[in-house]
Amino acid sequence: MKQYFLIHYGEIGLKGKNRPQFENQLVANIRLMAEREKIKTSIKRLWGKILLESNQTSQEKVIALLQRTFGIVWFAPGKKVSFSWENLKKVCGKIAQEKTFASFAIRARTGGEKIPRQEIEVKIGDYIRKRFQKKVNLENPDLTFYIEAIGPKTVFIFTQKYPGPGGLPVGSSGKALCLISGGIDSPVAAYLMMKRGLKVDFVHFHSYPQTSRNSINKVKDLVKTLTYFQPKSKLFLVPLLPLQKKLYLSCNRRYLVLLYRRAMLRIAEAIAKETKAAALITGDSLGQVASQTVQNLSLQNEAVSLPILRPLVSFDKEEIIKKARKIGTFEISILPHQDCCSLFVPKHPATQGKLSVVKNEEKKIPLEKLIHACLKEKEVIDLSHS
Ligand code: ATP
Ligand code: MG
Description:
Bound molecules: adenosine-5'-triphosphate, magnesium ion
Strand content: 15-25%
Number of domains: 2
Distance between the termini: 26 Å
Structural class: alpha/beta
Number of helices: 13
Mean pLDDT: 93
CATH superfamily of the largest domain: HUPs
Helix content: 25-40%
C-alpha cells in the first residue's frame, strides 16, 4: 500500500536565491538516504513543501529517516485526497471511526489555493459533530484533523505532526573537514555543523604502531554513526608518528601539544583544499584543556588560512555529553583508546604559548617535508550508514 508524507521545512531566513538550492538539496538528501536504507520513495516538490510517496509497508522506517534529515521542521503521514466534499467526508469519517476521542478541531490550511478554508472547517466540523456525536473544542481538542491544500484540487489530510530536526539540509552550506579524535567532543562538533547545512568529511590522526589501532576502529564507528545524518562520509586516516617523533626530539616539550595541533591543522588544510572543503571543524571548548585557552587557540588559527569552526566553544562538558548521548556517539567515544596527542607530552604544557616561540620551534625541523610525508601515507575510506 502507498504511504504519503507531507514534509515542511524552515522558510524563515530563506532568502530568494538560496531557496531553490535549499529545496533541491533537501529532496536529494531524502532520496539518497532512503535509497541507502532500501526505502522506495518518489518525492515531489510542491510550493513550499514536499510530498513523499513510499511503498514501504511500515511507516516507522520513513518516520525514523525524516526525523534525522536536517532542514525538515515537521512532517506528517496522511492521505492525499482530490478535493470534493464527498471525499473529505469519507476520509475524515474513516479517521473518526478508527480513533478514540471525545473532542476535536478541524484545521484547514489552503494558502494561495482556490479551496475555501473556512468552508472546510465549518462543513467538515459539522459533519463529524453530527455523524459521530463528538464535541468541537478549538482550544484543547483530543484530535485535530489537519486538511492542507497541496495543489489546486488536492488536499492532504492528517492528524499527527512529527517534529523534524530543523537546521539546514546537509550540503546547502557547502563542505567542511572535521578533525575527529575518538573522544566525546569532535563527533558532537561535526553533528552540529551538519545541522547548519555543511556536508562533513573527517580526518583522524593516529600514532600507529606506537599506539594500538583502537582509535582508528573507534573513529570508523563514530563516522558511521554520524553518517546516519548525511548521505555519505569520507574518512581520511593520517599517520602522525614520524612528525611527532621529530617534534619530540627537537622541540620545547611544553609546546608539544600546540605543535602537534598546528601540524594537524596544516595537514587537514591540505586535505580540505584537495577535496574542496571550505572550513575545518574541531571539538575545542574554551578552557577545557591547556591547548584550548584563547591564546593557544589563536596560535592554532595562525597555522592555517581556512576558517576553523568550533561549535562547542561555549559548551560545558555536561552539555556536550548530553548531546553525544542523544546522537548515539557517546557509548563509542568512551571506549578506551590512546590519543596521539597524549604521546610524549609533559604534565604542564604551556597555557599561554607565544607565537615567536612556536615559530622558532617549528624552524628546528623540516616541517614542510614531514607534512608532505604524512600526506603521502594517508588512507581514505568511504563510509555509509549501516
Ligand atoms: P575530543 O573529545 O574530540 O577528543 P578533547 O576534549 O579530547 O576532544 P583535545 O584532545 O584537546 O580535546 O582535542 C581538541 C580537538 O582537536 C578535538 O576535538 C579534535 O577536533 C582535534 N583532535 C585532537 N586529537 C585529534 C586526532 N587524533 N585526530 C584528529 N583530530 C584531533
Ligand atoms: Mg581528544
